[in-house]
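Schema walkthrough. Field components (list of strings):
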Amino acid sequence: MSQEQRAVERARKAFCTGRTKPLQYRIDQLKNLQRFIVERQKEIADALKKDLNKSEFGTPLYETMGLEGEISLAVSKLAEWAAPRPATKNLLTVSDEVYIQPEPLGVVLIIGAWNYPWAVTLQPLIGAIAAGNAAVIKPSEVCVHTSKVMGALLPLYIDKEVYPVVTGGVQETQELLQHRFDYIFYTGNCTVGKVIMEAAAKHLTPVTLELGGKSPCYIDKNCDITIACRRIAWGKYTNCGQTCIAPDYILCDPSIQDRIIEEIKKSVKEFYTEDPKTCSDYGRIINKRHFKRVMTLLEDSTIAMGGQNDESECYIAPTVLKDVKPGAKVMQEEIFGPVLPILCIGNVDEAIDFINQREKPLALYIFSSDNKLIKHMITETSSGGVLANDCLVHFSVSSLPFGGVGNSGMGSYHGKFSFDQLSHLRGCLIKQLKMEGMNKMRYPPHTAKKLSWARFFILNQVELSKLGRWALFALLAVVVAVILQVRAIPATWSSVLC
Amino acid sequence: MEKQAVDGARRAFNSGRSRPLQYRKQQLSALLRLIRERQAEIVSALKRDISRSEFDTPIFELIGIENDIKLAERNLADWMAPQPVKKTLLTITDDVYIKAEPLGVVLIIGAWNYPWSLTLRPLVGAIAAGNAAVVKPSEVSKSSASLLKELLPQYLDTEMYPVVTGGVPETQELLKQRFDHIFYTGNSTVGKLVMEAAARHLAPVTLELGGKSPCYIDKDCDIAVACRRITWGKFANCGQTCIAPDYILCHPNIQHRVIEEIRQTLLEFYGEDPKTSPDYGRIINQHHFDRLLALIEGCTVAVGGESDKSQCYITPTILKDVLPHARIMQEEIFGPVLPIVTAGDVNEVIRFINERPKPLALYVFSSNKKVVRRMLNETTSGGVLVNDVMVHYTINALPFGGVGNSGVGRYHGKHTFDQLSHHRACLIKSLAMERLNMARYPPMTPSRLRTSMFFLRSRSGSCDQALRAWAVVSSLLRYSDIIVICFG
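Field assembly_structure (string):
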């Protein structure tokens, strides 16, 4: 039996014991996860330094703090999230219990990515644990050191039968995908996303796919260009551009292109000094393959800033390209690197057309002081999320659902959305065996009169919570009157039934 | 032809005309007029397709559509409006909300058992959410499919909501095209194919499938009432309902009583000879007729068992002492055959249910609260209904859908609108208050990190007083920029 099969079967067996159901168990596991993050901060940071040259400050800021926030939100809200949710009744269900009950799905497969390996692997895990599921965790093999640490240390803190970590590459992932899961949560690229969904289809497994694409960044003439460029430079060059919601490319009027380039140069110097290679806050490309890929993208465009590189270190300087053409290599795929192309367009409507001719992005950024323009752009485009006048930070608002649309993904998570995404929201209706008189109108032999009563009751949906007490009494009086009425027609049926 | 319809729908969607509230309401009210004005024709088509009684059609098909349309008309402005969400210290002065947006072109593949409801209810949601939709009714319910093709263009925007009829080849051709969501109602086998096809374009799916919906009758309950309700649910539409109680589980001691009560109820409902009752339907076609007869083979018939191939008629049938491995227990019955499987106690019942694929509906008949609680807590299913069958379908506040093999996604009422929308996260910040951001920029220092952590940690806290204090402070900071500019 392969390690993958063993892990899945053990997780399923553990889930079937029912031990993930009690809220206390889930809270305990979440708190253990919290302890893991706090106690092992050093090992986590060291692994990230080796994988991505992430600075010691980058680890808490971009990876673990977000997780701690999500854990504490889940722990404090779990009872509320997991409780039955009452639903609006109709006249026929006035005296019944009608509610939606969140339930665990079963065994969730979480496939992480390499760019923020802790954040994008453990954040879905938080939702899976909170919702009462078991989970098989498959960190990305591309971040070699991080997946080793995850595999070795996570089982020391959380229930290793219920949440096994399976490490490995393409083969191990394919092996995993042969097995049946109750949900698959994948973060990565579109190509593999399609393969995952196809595999999921064989078992009718629902999926969340957090993908990517080219997130456009529009800079209006009417805005504080200095601040806009500082925020964009931060969003772009963090993690060396390897962020699914990094501003991928800029759209702006030709008259402000030079100013933008100057401001970005200034910000980059402030952030990373004259020589970012020596700066501990500046990262590296994850591996040689991606290094070569990103370098190729520069080939047919004009470099306005940066371009320096060192293959031995997988180092690419913060780079800006100017006057980029829509057909250029850099515009054909998600960049996922520290290269920022600028495309010049005439006006906001041209920008809107440009965006709409392409796949729906994961994020859309709009920099403008003109609220009307912002609203207009939002209305005329679509994207996973949209952020005006900043970059990336919508990711940290847990009351906003985070996810893509179209090619940028399906499903969403963060905060309560993770819990709901990884739960089955079961419709529940608890009736009594009394009041059988009410049901006569639905039984054969059918008559027109019976039908008209049935219509009356089904068509009137009542928001009982909004009714005042007196209105409720009046309603009940009507219902009683109707029962008496229905019982009276026709006398022959009641004699048959009694 | 299929590609043309899809391209036309996409062109229509791209024109933007399906987005305004007014347009959506217009189309919805036109759809309402269709089902009201043409009810007689719809009833006739269903009579031809499946021998559906003229009274069952409004109850089982049309009222649900009406309900959804009226709900959407009343609430659509609210549903479409931005939904503000909880802010954090960092977003206190920002606009933070979720906006429902259309997805684009939705493909709706209907089923044959309730061809109008299962095709038009998703369409109501698609229209309400501002999408275009390609409507593909099931070819198995021939008269309904051709009537729909004839009527829909007379009421709705033909380009935006084209009807494509046809069988397997036409559906396969449609599935090659790119959609922004695929809504399929039918069986698991085809469901898998639909999801595979959707995967090629990364189209999200809603799959309303089926399975064997168990019906547990406890010793502790009013068996006469329970059996009457079960009989109604099972034999309506000749058992061809995705949420029909598929089989009964009960203690062997009450099996005989259950059979007698159902037999008695059948007499009341359909008379001595159901074949002559206008309220009793027929099997949709020969293929399903043959399939059902094969399922009965080898089982003990307690009631019924007669059939007439020329009419696709199978009399209401009850099978007793059915064994778990009998053929009839291996697939969804979808016909007027009700097996009874005996089980010793609630533990056995729960085990039996949990050993099998998750059903679309679970029915529990009991007056014992403890038994009901256990059944609810220790099993799962798309939906669960205690002490009745099927009527949870009429409450559009309850999400209707399966789990596991019984389906993916859910709909009815606002759930359809949500399912067929993209809920876009929107955060509108201002370019002011840049000093607050300084802590996040490199070069990173321990003190900058501490400041960032303070703000990020507060994201999940709900200290309202702190938020209010911060609102004041942050407003001052914001205006301080202006003050400095004015007076500095």
